[in-house]
Amino acid sequence: MRNILIFGATSAIAEATARRFAAAGARFYLVGRHAERLAAIAGDLEIRSGQPVWYESLDLDALDQHPVVLERAVQALGSIDVALIAHGVLPDQQVCQISVEATLAAIHTNALSVISLATLLANLLEQRGQGTLVAIGSVAGDRGRQSNYVYGAAKGMVGLFLQGLRNRLHGKGVRVITVKPGFVDTPMTAAFEKKGLLWAQPDQIAQGIVAAVDRGRDQVYLPWFWRWIMLVIQHIPESVFKRLTL
């Protein structure tokens, strides 16, 4: 039985992932912004897992609350086997281009709050000498594109930070997994036209996350083909790339 802590538990990907862990009888501590939705998810997971589910509503932009909520989670669960950081927002790139405030707010939510949680969790798991830290990044963080470079910059920061954590914690019993989804059909992408083979459903991503945890992976692109798409994009010369409309 795993003890699982999830930040951003009301996100579509986090909920789908929790359901997959619940099928194996996991116990949960859920943290999310929307209290009513959080309560509904907790009730569903209790039925699926047959185990108690603790939850609390919290705006994760409040960095000073991170140590407090982590302490409550440990008190409830006893220990943490898997911690999933899954919260984030998709900012309006056009708004960010004309607003420093909007840009910094997006980076605070998508990068700084994630780094704060990852730091605290890494230290906690290192002290215990075991556990898995998983954070959801994005393929957008692999290269800056005019259509979403504020979001991409934040995700790129998270990816580099997790890479450093992985290097630091290697050999200390702690796994650090970076998850890089491509296009996913979620409420966050509601404004997009969702057509074509590149779009995935949340449960597809959840399946990949659970597999990455079970197999002890370091970094996964989900679905798998995004690894090869991004490899090509990363190797386009800058002199050519800057002329593209992406």
Question: Could you describe the 3D structure shown?
Answer:
The mean pLDDT is 96. The chain has helices spanning 12-22, 35-49, 66-77, 93-98, 100-128, 149-169, 202-215, 226-234, 238-241, and strands spanning 3-7, 27-32, 53-57, 82-85, 131-136, 174-181, 219-222. The protein has a 7-stranded parallel sheet with strand order 3-2-1-4-5-6-7, with helices on both faces. By secondary structure, it is α/β, with parallel strands linked by helices. It has one domain (3-241): NAD(P)-binding Rossmann-like Domain (Rossmann fold), CATH 3.40.50. Helix 1 packs parallel to helix 2 and helix 5 runs parallel beside helix 6.
CATH topology: Rossmann fold
Q: What would CATH call the architecture? A: 3-Layer(aba) Sandwich
Largest beta sheet, briefly?
7 strands, parallel
Alpha carbon gyration radius: 18 Å
Average the pLDDT over all residues and give the rounded result.
Answer: 96
CATH superfamily: NAD(P)-binding Rossmann-like Domain
- The run of helices and strands is EHEHEHEHHEHEHEHH
How much strand content do the residues show? Answer: 15-25%
Low-pLDDT stretches are none
Structural class: alpha/beta
The number of helical segments is 9
| CATH class annotation | Alpha Beta
Structure characteristics:
246 residues, alpha/beta, Rossmann fold, 9 helices, 7 strands, 15% strand, globular
Give a brief description.
This protein is of the alpha/beta class and 246 residues long.
